[in-house]
Design a protein that fits this description.
The chain is α+β, with helices and mostly antiparallel strands and 280 residues long. The protein has 11 helices and 7 strands. The strands form 2 sheets. Strands 1-2-5-4-3 form a 5-stranded mixed β-sheet. The protein has a two-stranded antiparallel sheet with strand order 6-7.
């Protein structure tokens, strides 16, 4: 039996165990294999994982799911032709049973307002095919020094590989800054869940000095007024009356079973407590 024939039923079985759509889970599997090929290539130090996929890696597939992959490119030049060359070399050198073909690659203003490149890939494993999307940005001068993550396979917890990522303190700082920036109009329930899960799971590992440093860097980059920064605890506390965020949280709970048992108040408490750590 080929490796592909062994893996396909495992993907379906694992997706059912987690209550996830099988097609969506297969896309996650393909994204993971893209990262694995990067990890095993000579260009591993060119890519720093960030965003939802990194958080999924940090908290576990059982506690967070995403559909996209975001990364910061720290190679010499982020241009479509250069990135095409790098990716094609990675794919050609790989002995993985998952193959990738670039469908399109274009410069784009990404969702986080950084200039970057949107890459659409065709992933293929045997007769199974799927289109996956990558957002690659150059980042900004406020980015901190990457760390090495030990990514755990979504199929087999014993199968791990190293990939560069953003420090947890930087992830949390960016999200705290975003909550101040959007205030009562915030509808980012996903960010609220991320703050809750990361602050709980990594409570004893968070470097509070680094968190505070990264928070003020993020707030400066987001151009948050000094008055709001000074009153950050009351600003976060006021979110308990935010109808838009509460409604977004309830919708998020309905969509994802892993958030169902976490009340809005409990999630907000985690956000407030983390901001309080910066205050002290």
């Amino acid at each position: 039996m080929s490796e592909v024939d062994k893996v396909l039923p495992l993907i379906s079985k694992r997706a059912r165990e987690l209550g996830y759509n099988i097609q969506h889970f297969q896309k996650l599997f393909f994204l993971e294999h893209f990262l694995k090929q990067i990890s095993e290539s000579n260009y591993r130090h060119y890519f720093v994982l960030k965003g939802g996929f990194e958080i999924q890696s940090l908290v576990g597939i059982e506690n967070r799911m995403t559909q996209d992959l975001d990364a910061i490119y720290v190679g010499p030049s982020l241009q479509p032709d250069k990135l095409t060359t790098v990716l094609n070399e990675v794919f050609e050198q790989s002995t993985d049973y998952v193959s990738f073909t670039i469908k399109s690659i274009e410069q784009k203003q990404l969702d986080d307002d950084y200039p970057g490149i949107r890459v659409n890939l065709l992933a293929q494993m045997g007769k199974s095919k799927a289109s996956i999307k990558l957002d690659i940005s150059k980042g900004n001068p406020y980015e901190t020094i990457p760390i090495m993550l030990n990514h755990q396979s979504i199929l087999n917890a014993d199968d791990k590989f190293p990939i560069y990522g953003i420090p947890i303190e930087k992830i949390l700082a960016d999200k705290l800054s975003a909550f101040l920036n959007h205030g009562m109009l915030n509808t980012r329930a996903k960010d609220l869940f991320d703050v809750y899960s990361l602050s709980i799971l990594y409570r004893t590992d968070i470097d509070l000095v680094l968190l505070k440093k990264e928070f003020f860097k993020s707030a400066a980059f987001d151009h948050i007024p000094n008055k709001i920064i000074e009153n950050r605890l009351s600003e976060i506390s006021a979110l308990s009356d935010s109808e838009s965020l509460r409604a977004s949280w309830q919708q998020y709970q309905q969509q994802y079973d892993y958030a169902e048992s976490i009340s809005y108040t409990t999630a907000l408490d985690a956000l407030f407590n983390l901001m309080q750590e910066i205050e002290n």
